[in-house]
Amino acid sequence: MFSKESHRRSNRRSYRKAKQYKYISNGSSTSTSSATDEGSNGSSSSDDYKHYGFRKGEYIKDYKIRRHISDGTFGRVLKVRRNWKSYAMKIVRRNHAESAQQEADILFYLKKKDLNRYFVEIIESFYHRGYYCMVFERLGPSLSDMLRLNQNRGIPMNLIRNISKQLIKSIGLLHDTKLTHTDLKPENILFSRIRQLQKQNDLYLPADNRLKIIDLGGAEFNDEDHNCIINTRQYRAPEVQLQCCRWDQKSDVWGIACIIFEMYTGHLLFQTRKNEFEHMALVEKITEQSFPHWMASNVKGTLKHCFNVKNATNGKYYIWPQGTTTKESILKVKNQQTLREMILDPLLRDLLVKMLEIDPHKRISCSQALDHKFFIN
């Protein structure tokens, strides 16, 4: 492990929370903040909170700027070229340079382990005029892009099996290095080739199925002081939301299961946003499970008052709905189908049931998931 960089790990917390943009793909729909026109200049201010001001045709080191891709909370992403080959360059705002170095450290670490076959490859990093720059290989559209283009209709089973196997294998290898990704979602899964998605039989499908995973800025080693809340809510494991134990690599498994379900149906498994009370009610309804006593007994945060471990109701410790719950939310949970009702394929259903065990101690690992009959058959 790269111990000389370990002192920077704690600075990554705010970096993970705010980093909302994707910097590798073509940039057609990946930025969550306003982006400038393709050839426009950025702000020329040297203020730490400003983006790097660039000029089209300008050289940064030996990279020539071709166009703007996207802007994000932590920096600006540009398409650059060197020796007739294109790359994606992320130029980080000055006040976040140290945090960004942690992501680069992890990517260089994975590259040294020869895992850049599965995760985005970082080419180099350096400082330019006081700004920290990271150069990446350019990749293709994201899984999220493909699902969006298919208008939430899901994708063919053979492609689900192919993508799921690659994803589980890649994250399993990451887990072997004692790392947890912590932010798995379709936006962070990119097709390896820059080619656009092709329309076949009224569906947009990749010309090349090979994947790479991005956004390692939130990845944490097993021996790190784990942040309380990780993941985007819809892909967040219950033990993380409840803060009832020290989460581990099994939280990634939960996120992968949510992604697989999304490929099958075309929509989110847990369709809830800011309502954590509704989210936990949906977890019980969809999985047809109840939170075990040990989890209910160790809940922290705002959800603590929603659990009564002394007086279980029909074997349930989670008290929902409560007096403040809206009628809309109650109706939403009541009408929610279970996983068994939504997944018709028996082998896929069995795999997801095992990956979506509420109790992380009972949830299967990535290596166990790869041995499931869904992939063997």
Automatic annotation (TrEMBL):
Residues 28-46 have a biased composition (Low complexity). It holds the Pfam family Pkinase. The keyword Methyltransferase does not apply. GO terms for cellular component: nucleus. InterPro entries: CLK_kinases, Prot_kinase_dom, Ser/Thr_kinase_AS. Residues 63-375 form the Protein kinase domain. This is Protein kinase domain-containing protein.
